[in-house]
Amino acid sequence: MRSLSSLLLGSALLTVCGACLAERSRPNIIILLADDLGYGELGCYGQEMIQTPTIDALAAKGLKFTDFYAGTSVCSPSRGVLMTGIHAGHATIRGNKGFYQVNGSWDRVALKKSEITIAEMLRDAGYQTAFVGKWHLGIPEDVSTWASGRGFDFAVQEQWGPKAEGGEFDERDHQVNGREEVIFHDYTQYDCLDEFRTDIMLKFLDEQRDQEKPLFLFMSYRSPHAHEFYLRETENYKDRGWPEIERRHASRITMLDEQIKRLLAKLETIGDMENTFILFTSDNGPHREHKHDHTFFNSAQGLNGYKRDMYEGGIRVPGIVYWKGKSQVGVSDHPAIFYDVMPTLADVAGIDVPEQTDGISFLPEVMGTPQKEHDLLYWELQHASGKESGFRQAVRKGDWKAVRYANKGRTELYDLKIDINETTDVADLHPEVVERMNRILTQKSEKTELYPYAGGPGQ
Ligand SMILES: [Ca+2]
Protein backbone atom coordinates (compact mmCIF):
# COMPACT_ATOMS: atom_id res chain seq x y z
CA MET A 1 0.00 0.00 0.00
CA ARG A 2 1.29 3.49 -0.83
CA SER A 3 1.87 5.79 2.12
CA LEU A 4 -0.16 8.92 2.65
CA SER A 5 2.89 11.07 2.00
CA SER A 6 3.55 9.48 -1.39
CA LEU A 7 -0.09 9.91 -2.33
CA LEU A 8 0.09 13.57 -1.37
CA LEU A 9 3.34 13.96 -3.28
CA GLY A 10 1.79 12.31 -6.32
CA SER A 11 -1.22 14.54 -6.15
CA ALA A 12 0.96 17.65 -5.83
CA LEU A 13 3.00 16.59 -8.86
CA LEU A 14 -0.17 16.05 -10.85
CA THR A 15 -1.36 19.51 -9.92
CA VAL A 16 1.95 21.13 -10.81
CA CYS A 17 2.33 19.28 -14.09
CA GLY A 18 -1.32 19.09 -15.09
CA ALA A 19 -0.84 21.53 -17.96
CA CYS A 20 2.31 19.91 -19.31
CA LEU A 21 0.79 16.44 -19.05
CA ALA A 22 -2.17 17.65 -21.09
CA GLU A 23 0.21 19.04 -23.70
CA ARG A 24 2.31 15.90 -23.86
CA SER A 25 -0.71 13.67 -24.28
CA ARG A 26 -1.90 15.59 -27.33
CA PRO A 27 -1.50 13.63 -30.56
CA ASN A 28 1.29 14.39 -33.00
CA ILE A 29 0.08 15.93 -36.26
CA ILE A 30 1.72 15.57 -39.66
CA ILE A 31 0.78 17.21 -42.96
CA LEU A 32 2.36 15.72 -46.07
CA LEU A 33 1.68 18.10 -48.96
CA ALA A 34 2.48 17.30 -52.58
CA ASP A 35 2.74 20.11 -55.13
CA ASP A 36 0.48 19.80 -58.20
CA LEU A 37 -0.29 16.11 -57.65
CA GLY A 38 -3.44 15.20 -59.55
CA TYR A 39 -6.48 13.33 -58.27
CA GLY A 40 -5.53 10.29 -60.33
CA GLU A 41 -1.78 10.08 -59.82
CA LEU A 42 -1.76 7.59 -56.94
CA GLY A 43 -2.44 3.88 -57.16
CA CYS A 44 -5.07 4.19 -54.44
CA TYR A 45 -6.95 6.67 -56.66
CA GLY A 46 -6.87 4.45 -59.72
CA GLN A 47 -3.43 5.19 -61.19
CA GLU A 48 -2.20 2.11 -63.03
CA MET A 49 1.19 3.16 -64.42
CA ILE A 50 2.89 5.15 -61.64
CA GLN A 51 3.92 3.19 -58.54
CA THR A 52 3.09 4.74 -55.13
CA PRO A 53 3.17 1.81 -52.68
CA THR A 54 3.77 3.81 -49.48
CA ILE A 55 0.91 6.25 -49.99
CA ASP A 56 -1.33 3.42 -51.18
CA ALA A 57 -0.56 1.52 -47.97
CA LEU A 58 -1.41 4.62 -45.93
CA ALA A 59 -4.77 4.83 -47.74
CA ALA A 60 -5.40 1.10 -47.27
CA LYS A 61 -5.03 1.28 -43.51
CA GLY A 62 -6.58 4.75 -43.15
CA LEU A 63 -9.46 6.75 -44.60
CA LYS A 64 -9.41 7.80 -48.26
CA PHE A 65 -11.61 10.76 -49.19
CA THR A 66 -13.10 10.72 -52.69
CA ASP A 67 -14.37 14.32 -52.48
CA PHE A 68 -11.42 16.15 -50.96
CA TYR A 69 -10.78 19.66 -52.27
CA ALA A 70 -7.85 22.06 -52.31
CA GLY A 71 -8.35 25.69 -51.24
CA THR A 72 -8.22 26.76 -54.88
CA SER A 73 -6.41 25.66 -58.01
CA VAL A 74 -2.96 27.22 -57.66
CA CYS A 75 -0.20 27.14 -55.05
CA SER A 76 -0.10 30.31 -52.96
CA PRO A 77 -3.82 30.99 -52.43
CA SER A 78 -4.58 27.30 -51.92
CA ARG A 79 -1.87 27.01 -49.25
CA GLY A 80 -3.20 30.18 -47.64
CA VAL A 81 -6.60 28.54 -47.24
CA LEU A 82 -4.91 25.44 -45.78
CA MET A 83 -2.87 27.41 -43.24
CA THR A 84 -5.64 29.79 -42.10
CA GLY A 85 -8.90 27.88 -42.51
CA ILE A 86 -10.32 30.89 -44.37
CA HIS A 87 -12.07 30.22 -47.70
CA ALA A 88 -10.79 31.70 -50.94
CA GLY A 89 -13.54 34.34 -51.15
CA HIS A 90 -12.31 36.39 -48.23
CA ALA A 91 -8.75 35.16 -47.81
CA THR A 92 -5.90 37.63 -48.00
CA ILE A 93 -4.19 35.73 -50.82
CA ARG A 94 -6.48 35.21 -53.85
CA GLY A 95 -3.88 34.44 -56.52
CA ASN A 96 -0.15 33.81 -56.83
CA LYS A 97 0.20 37.58 -57.25
CA GLY A 98 -1.82 40.62 -56.23
CA PHE A 99 -2.04 44.00 -57.93
CA TYR A 100 -0.20 46.86 -56.20
CA GLN A 101 -1.71 50.11 -57.47
CA VAL A 102 1.11 52.16 -55.99
CA ASN A 103 3.54 50.91 -58.64
CA GLY A 104 1.05 49.35 -61.04
CA SER A 105 2.51 45.87 -60.85
CA TRP A 106 1.52 42.33 -59.90
CA ASP A 107 3.57 40.95 -57.04
CA ARG A 108 3.58 38.52 -54.12
CA VAL A 109 1.20 38.89 -51.19
CA ALA A 110 1.78 37.68 -47.62
CA LEU A 111 -0.71 36.30 -45.12
CA LYS A 112 -1.89 38.99 -42.74
CA LYS A 113 -0.39 38.85 -39.25
CA SER A 114 -3.92 39.15 -37.87
CA GLU A 115 -4.74 35.74 -39.37
CA ILE A 116 -3.56 32.91 -37.15
CA THR A 117 -1.88 29.99 -38.93
CA ILE A 118 -2.23 26.31 -38.05
CA ALA A 119 1.38 26.38 -36.86
CA GLU A 120 0.72 29.32 -34.53
CA MET A 121 -2.43 27.63 -33.25
CA LEU A 122 -0.58 24.40 -32.43
CA ARG A 123 2.57 26.06 -31.08
CA ASP A 124 0.40 28.03 -28.68
CA ALA A 125 -1.11 24.70 -27.57
CA GLY A 126 2.33 23.38 -26.64
CA TYR A 127 3.41 21.73 -29.86
CA GLN A 128 6.92 21.63 -31.25
CA THR A 129 6.41 22.81 -34.82
CA ALA A 130 8.63 22.00 -37.80
CA PHE A 131 8.48 22.83 -41.49
CA VAL A 132 10.58 21.97 -44.54
CA GLY A 133 10.00 22.96 -48.16
CA LYS A 134 7.92 25.42 -50.12
CA TRP A 135 6.14 28.09 -48.05
CA HIS A 136 4.83 30.51 -50.74
CA LEU A 137 2.81 32.55 -48.23
CA GLY A 138 5.20 35.41 -47.59
CA ILE A 139 7.15 38.02 -49.47
CA PRO A 140 10.86 37.50 -50.08
CA GLU A 141 11.99 40.83 -48.66
CA ASP A 142 10.18 40.43 -45.33
CA VAL A 143 11.47 37.52 -43.24
CA SER A 144 8.72 38.03 -40.67
CA THR A 145 6.24 36.69 -43.26
CA TRP A 146 8.20 33.46 -43.78
CA ALA A 147 7.35 30.13 -42.15
CA SER A 148 9.74 30.88 -39.28
CA GLY A 149 7.74 34.05 -38.55
CA ARG A 150 4.38 32.28 -38.77
CA GLY A 151 4.52 29.68 -36.06
CA PHE A 152 7.28 27.22 -36.86
CA ASP A 153 10.01 26.60 -34.26
CA PHE A 154 12.10 24.95 -36.96
CA ALA A 155 11.63 26.14 -40.54
CA VAL A 156 13.74 25.35 -43.57
CA GLN A 157 12.29 27.22 -46.49
CA GLU A 158 12.89 27.32 -50.20
CA GLN A 159 13.05 30.98 -51.19
CA TRP A 160 13.20 32.82 -54.47
CA GLY A 161 12.77 36.43 -55.51
CA PRO A 162 14.43 39.68 -54.38
CA LYS A 163 16.43 40.10 -51.18
CA ALA A 164 15.69 43.10 -48.99
CA GLU A 165 19.27 44.29 -49.41
CA GLY A 166 19.22 43.85 -53.20
CA GLY A 167 20.00 40.91 -55.46
CA GLU A 168 18.03 37.69 -55.76
CA PHE A 169 17.79 34.56 -53.65
CA ASP A 170 19.24 31.41 -55.13
CA GLU A 171 16.38 29.01 -54.55
CA ARG A 172 18.76 26.09 -54.15
CA ASP A 173 19.72 27.78 -50.87
CA HIS A 174 17.25 26.61 -48.25
CA GLN A 175 16.87 29.28 -45.58
CA VAL A 176 16.98 28.07 -41.99
CA ASN A 177 14.82 29.77 -39.32
CA GLY A 178 14.45 32.92 -41.34
CA ARG A 179 17.92 33.81 -42.57
CA GLU A 180 19.92 32.37 -39.68
CA GLU A 181 21.80 30.07 -42.01
CA VAL A 182 21.56 28.41 -45.40
CA ILE A 183 21.58 24.77 -46.48
CA PHE A 184 22.60 24.51 -50.12
CA HIS A 185 20.81 21.95 -52.26
CA ASP A 186 23.69 20.45 -54.22
CA TYR A 187 21.49 18.68 -56.66
CA THR A 188 24.22 16.37 -57.90
CA GLN A 189 24.13 14.67 -54.48
CA TYR A 190 20.44 13.76 -54.36
CA ASP A 191 18.05 11.82 -56.52
CA CYS A 192 15.51 14.61 -56.19
CA LEU A 193 14.78 17.76 -54.18
CA ASP A 194 12.41 15.89 -51.88
CA GLU A 195 15.22 13.55 -50.85
CA PHE A 196 17.27 16.60 -49.79
CA ARG A 197 14.31 18.00 -47.87
CA THR A 198 13.58 14.68 -46.21
CA ASP A 199 17.21 14.45 -45.05
CA ILE A 200 16.78 17.86 -43.37
CA MET A 201 13.67 16.71 -41.53
CA LEU A 202 15.25 13.39 -40.49
CA LYS A 203 18.23 15.29 -39.07
CA PHE A 204 15.89 17.60 -37.19
CA LEU A 205 14.09 14.61 -35.70
CA ASP A 206 17.40 13.07 -34.66
CA GLU A 207 18.93 16.18 -33.17
CA GLN A 208 16.22 18.61 -32.13
CA ARG A 209 13.08 16.61 -31.35
CA ASP A 210 11.73 17.69 -27.96
CA GLN A 211 10.08 14.58 -26.56
CA GLU A 212 8.41 16.68 -23.87
CA LYS A 213 6.14 18.17 -26.53
CA PRO A 214 3.71 16.83 -29.12
CA LEU A 215 4.96 17.32 -32.67
CA PHE A 216 3.44 19.24 -35.57
CA LEU A 217 5.33 18.54 -38.74
CA PHE A 218 4.56 20.07 -42.14
CA MET A 219 6.44 18.56 -45.08
CA SER A 220 5.87 20.73 -48.13
CA TYR A 221 7.26 18.66 -50.99
CA ARG A 222 8.23 19.73 -54.52
CA SER A 223 7.05 16.74 -56.51
CA PRO A 224 5.52 16.59 -59.04
CA HIS A 225 5.63 20.35 -59.74
CA ALA A 226 7.25 21.05 -63.11
CA HIS A 227 9.95 23.29 -61.74
CA GLU A 228 12.91 21.30 -60.51
CA PHE A 229 16.45 22.10 -61.58
CA TYR A 230 17.79 18.63 -61.65
CA LEU A 231 16.80 15.04 -61.30
CA ARG A 232 19.48 12.40 -60.92
CA GLU A 233 19.31 9.73 -63.60
CA THR A 234 17.33 6.74 -62.41
CA GLU A 235 16.31 3.46 -63.93
CA ASN A 236 12.69 4.08 -62.98
CA TYR A 237 10.33 3.14 -65.82
CA LYS A 238 13.13 3.02 -68.41
CA ASP A 239 11.70 -0.12 -69.97
CA ARG A 240 8.28 1.40 -70.66
CA GLY A 241 9.01 3.31 -73.83
CA TRP A 242 7.34 6.46 -72.54
CA PRO A 243 8.38 9.93 -73.68
CA GLU A 244 11.28 11.06 -71.46
CA ILE A 245 9.31 13.97 -69.96
CA GLU A 246 6.59 11.55 -68.87
CA ARG A 247 9.03 8.96 -67.56
CA ARG A 248 10.63 11.62 -65.39
CA HIS A 249 7.22 12.80 -64.19
CA ALA A 250 6.28 9.29 -63.09
CA SER A 251 9.71 8.75 -61.58
CA ARG A 252 9.42 11.87 -59.44
CA ILE A 253 6.08 10.77 -58.01
CA THR A 254 7.53 7.36 -57.19
CA MET A 255 10.55 9.04 -55.57
CA LEU A 256 8.22 11.24 -53.49
CA ASP A 257 6.55 8.05 -52.33
CA GLU A 258 9.98 6.67 -51.34
CA GLN A 259 10.75 9.83 -49.34
CA ILE A 260 7.48 9.52 -47.45
CA LYS A 261 8.44 5.93 -46.69
CA ARG A 262 11.75 7.12 -45.19
CA LEU A 263 10.02 9.75 -43.05
CA LEU A 264 7.36 7.37 -41.75
CA ALA A 265 10.04 4.79 -40.95
CA LYS A 266 11.97 7.38 -38.93
CA LEU A 267 8.86 8.39 -36.99
CA GLU A 268 8.22 4.72 -36.26
CA THR A 269 11.79 4.28 -35.03
CA ILE A 270 11.70 7.23 -32.63
CA GLY A 271 8.26 6.32 -31.35
CA ASP A 272 6.42 9.27 -32.88
CA MET A 273 4.09 7.15 -35.03
CA GLU A 274 2.12 6.19 -31.95
CA ASN A 275 -0.79 8.58 -31.49
CA THR A 276 -0.02 10.51 -34.69
CA PHE A 277 -2.62 12.02 -37.01
CA ILE A 278 -1.37 12.06 -40.61
CA LEU A 279 -2.93 13.95 -43.52
CA PHE A 280 -1.64 13.48 -47.05
CA THR A 281 -2.90 15.80 -49.79
CA SER A 282 -1.95 18.06 -52.73
CA ASP A 283 -2.24 21.84 -53.09
CA ASN A 284 -4.00 21.75 -56.48
CA GLY A 285 -4.69 19.56 -59.50
CA PRO A 286 -2.16 18.30 -62.03
CA HIS A 287 -0.09 20.69 -64.12
CA ARG A 288 0.61 20.58 -67.83
CA GLU A 289 3.81 22.57 -67.93
CA HIS A 290 7.24 22.11 -69.51
CA LYS A 291 5.62 19.97 -72.25
CA HIS A 292 4.28 17.44 -69.74
CA ASP A 293 0.86 16.19 -70.86
CA HIS A 294 -1.46 15.68 -67.87
CA THR A 295 -3.57 13.25 -69.88
CA PHE A 296 -0.67 10.82 -70.47
CA PHE A 297 -1.13 9.20 -67.04
CA ASN A 298 -4.76 10.31 -66.77
CA SER A 299 -3.53 12.51 -63.91
CA ALA A 300 -6.95 13.94 -63.07
CA GLN A 301 -8.62 10.52 -63.34
CA GLY A 302 -10.79 11.80 -66.18
CA LEU A 303 -11.92 14.93 -64.35
CA ASN A 304 -12.15 18.05 -66.51
CA GLY A 305 -9.42 20.64 -66.15
CA TYR A 306 -6.08 20.93 -64.40
CA LYS A 307 -4.04 23.41 -62.32
CA ARG A 308 -5.59 26.94 -62.37
CA ASP A 309 -9.00 25.62 -63.48
CA MET A 310 -12.14 25.77 -61.37
CA TYR A 311 -13.30 22.45 -62.80
CA GLU A 312 -12.92 19.37 -60.61
CA GLY A 313 -9.55 18.51 -62.18
CA GLY A 314 -8.09 21.74 -60.83
CA ILE A 315 -9.40 21.47 -57.27
CA ARG A 316 -10.29 17.89 -56.38
CA VAL A 317 -7.20 16.28 -54.90
CA PRO A 318 -6.13 13.17 -53.01
CA GLY A 319 -7.01 13.30 -49.31
CA ILE A 320 -5.84 10.51 -47.03
CA VAL A 321 -5.98 10.40 -43.24
CA TYR A 322 -4.32 7.80 -41.06
CA TRP A 323 -4.34 7.80 -37.26
CA LYS A 324 -2.94 4.53 -35.99
CA GLY A 325 -5.53 2.54 -34.10
CA LYS A 326 -8.10 5.33 -34.30
CA SER A 327 -9.05 6.37 -37.82
CA GLN A 328 -11.68 4.48 -39.77
CA VAL A 329 -10.45 2.12 -42.45
CA GLY A 330 -12.11 2.65 -45.79
CA VAL A 331 -13.38 5.25 -48.23
CA SER A 332 -15.38 8.40 -47.48
CA ASP A 333 -17.42 10.52 -49.89
CA HIS A 334 -17.82 13.30 -47.33
CA PRO A 335 -16.94 16.54 -49.17
CA ALA A 336 -14.05 18.14 -47.28
CA ILE A 337 -11.90 21.11 -48.24
CA PHE A 338 -8.66 22.79 -47.18
CA TYR A 339 -10.46 25.25 -44.91
CA ASP A 340 -11.67 22.26 -42.89
CA VAL A 341 -8.11 21.30 -41.97
CA MET A 342 -7.61 23.97 -39.28
CA PRO A 343 -10.77 23.03 -37.32
CA THR A 344 -9.97 19.34 -37.81
CA LEU A 345 -6.49 19.73 -36.35
CA ALA A 346 -7.85 21.85 -33.48
CA ASP A 347 -10.24 18.97 -32.83
CA VAL A 348 -7.40 16.44 -32.93
CA ALA A 349 -5.36 18.54 -30.48
CA GLY A 350 -8.38 19.09 -28.22
CA ILE A 351 -8.20 22.88 -28.42
CA ASP A 352 -10.60 25.66 -29.38
CA VAL A 353 -11.12 26.34 -33.09
CA PRO A 354 -9.99 29.87 -34.05
CA GLU A 355 -12.96 32.08 -34.87
CA GLN A 356 -11.56 33.08 -38.25
CA THR A 357 -12.16 29.69 -39.86
CA ASP A 358 -14.94 28.88 -42.32
CA GLY A 359 -14.28 25.17 -42.02
CA ILE A 360 -15.98 22.22 -40.38
CA SER A 361 -13.86 19.60 -38.63
CA PHE A 362 -13.90 16.30 -40.51
CA LEU A 363 -12.53 14.44 -37.50
CA PRO A 364 -15.95 12.84 -36.81
CA GLU A 365 -15.85 11.31 -40.30
CA VAL A 366 -12.32 10.06 -39.63
CA MET A 367 -13.48 8.49 -36.35
CA GLY A 368 -16.72 7.07 -37.75
CA THR A 369 -19.08 9.30 -35.78
CA PRO A 370 -21.86 11.58 -37.15
CA GLN A 371 -20.39 14.25 -39.41
CA LYS A 372 -21.75 17.75 -40.03
CA GLU A 373 -21.93 18.73 -43.71
CA HIS A 374 -21.18 22.01 -45.47
CA ASP A 375 -24.11 23.80 -47.05
CA LEU A 376 -21.76 24.62 -49.93
CA LEU A 377 -18.08 24.75 -50.90
CA TYR A 378 -16.52 27.83 -52.49
CA TRP A 379 -13.41 28.63 -54.54
CA GLU A 380 -12.03 31.60 -56.44
CA LEU A 381 -8.82 32.52 -58.17
CA GLN A 382 -7.42 35.79 -59.48
CA HIS A 383 -4.97 35.46 -62.34
CA ALA A 384 -2.43 38.14 -62.95
CA SER A 385 -2.63 37.70 -66.68
CA GLY A 386 -5.29 40.24 -67.46
CA LYS A 387 -8.92 41.06 -67.36
CA GLU A 388 -10.23 38.47 -69.79
CA SER A 389 -8.90 35.39 -68.06
CA GLY A 390 -8.60 37.20 -64.77
CA PHE A 391 -11.16 36.00 -62.30
CA ARG A 392 -12.64 32.55 -61.84
CA GLN A 393 -15.05 31.25 -59.23
CA ALA A 394 -16.75 27.99 -58.39
CA VAL A 395 -19.34 26.75 -55.95
CA ARG A 396 -20.51 23.23 -55.19
CA LYS A 397 -23.87 22.88 -53.51
CA GLY A 398 -24.93 19.28 -53.20
CA ASP A 399 -24.42 17.84 -56.66
CA TRP A 400 -24.70 21.19 -58.42
CA LYS A 401 -21.45 22.79 -59.43
CA ALA A 402 -21.22 26.26 -60.95
CA VAL A 403 -18.09 27.65 -62.60
CA ARG A 404 -18.09 31.37 -63.33
CA TYR A 405 -15.70 33.24 -65.57
CA ALA A 406 -16.64 36.44 -63.87
CA ASN A 407 -14.83 38.84 -66.18
CA LYS A 408 -16.68 37.34 -69.13
CA GLY A 409 -19.99 37.29 -67.27
CA ARG A 410 -20.40 33.57 -68.01
CA THR A 411 -21.61 30.95 -65.57
CA GLU A 412 -21.53 27.24 -66.42
CA LEU A 413 -23.56 24.67 -64.51
CA TYR A 414 -22.83 20.97 -64.05
CA ASP A 415 -24.62 18.13 -62.30
CA LEU A 416 -21.82 16.20 -60.60
CA LYS A 417 -24.14 13.32 -59.80
CA ILE A 418 -24.39 12.31 -63.44
CA ASP A 419 -21.51 14.32 -64.91
CA ILE A 420 -18.53 14.29 -62.56
CA ASN A 421 -16.24 15.11 -65.49
CA GLU A 422 -18.17 18.32 -66.22
CA THR A 423 -18.61 17.58 -69.90
CA THR A 424 -22.08 19.10 -70.34
CA ASP A 425 -22.97 22.64 -69.34
CA VAL A 426 -26.65 22.58 -68.37
CA ALA A 427 -26.96 26.26 -67.46
CA ASP A 428 -29.56 26.88 -70.18
CA LEU A 429 -31.78 24.10 -68.78
CA HIS A 430 -31.75 25.41 -65.21
CA PRO A 431 -31.79 29.22 -65.22
CA GLU A 432 -33.22 29.33 -61.69
CA VAL A 433 -30.29 27.27 -60.37
CA VAL A 434 -27.82 29.49 -62.22
CA GLU A 435 -29.43 32.57 -60.70
CA ARG A 436 -29.15 31.06 -57.22
CA MET A 437 -25.54 30.08 -57.79
CA ASN A 438 -24.67 33.51 -59.16
CA ARG A 439 -26.05 35.10 -56.02
CA ILE A 440 -23.86 32.81 -53.90
CA LEU A 441 -20.80 33.50 -56.04
CA THR A 442 -21.24 37.24 -55.68
CA GLN A 443 -21.97 37.03 -51.98
CA LYS A 444 -18.98 34.79 -51.16
CA SER A 445 -16.35 36.93 -52.85
CA GLU A 446 -15.47 39.90 -50.72
CA LYS A 447 -13.82 42.89 -52.31
CA THR A 448 -10.18 43.25 -51.39
CA GLU A 449 -7.59 45.85 -52.19
CA LEU A 450 -4.93 43.76 -53.91
CA TYR A 451 -7.24 41.70 -56.14
CA PRO A 452 -9.18 44.18 -58.27
CA TYR A 453 -11.69 41.71 -59.74
CA ALA A 454 -12.71 40.11 -56.44
CA GLY A 455 -16.36 40.64 -55.68
CA GLY A 456 -17.48 39.49 -59.09
CA PRO A 457 -18.93 41.25 -62.12
CA GLY A 458 -20.19 44.77 -61.81
CA GLN A 459 -18.25 45.53 -58.64
CA1 LIG B 1 0.90 23.73 -56.56
From TrEMBL:
Alphabetical UniProt keywords: Calcium, Hydrolase, Metal-binding, Signal
Keyword Cell cycle carried by entry: no
Coiled-coil blocks: none
Location of the Sulfatase N-terminal domain: 27-351
GO MF term (any one): metal ion binding
Source organism, top-level taxon: Bacteria
Family stated for the protein in its record: Belongs to the sulfatase family.
Name of the featured protein: Arylsulfatase
Organism of origin: Pontiella desulfatans
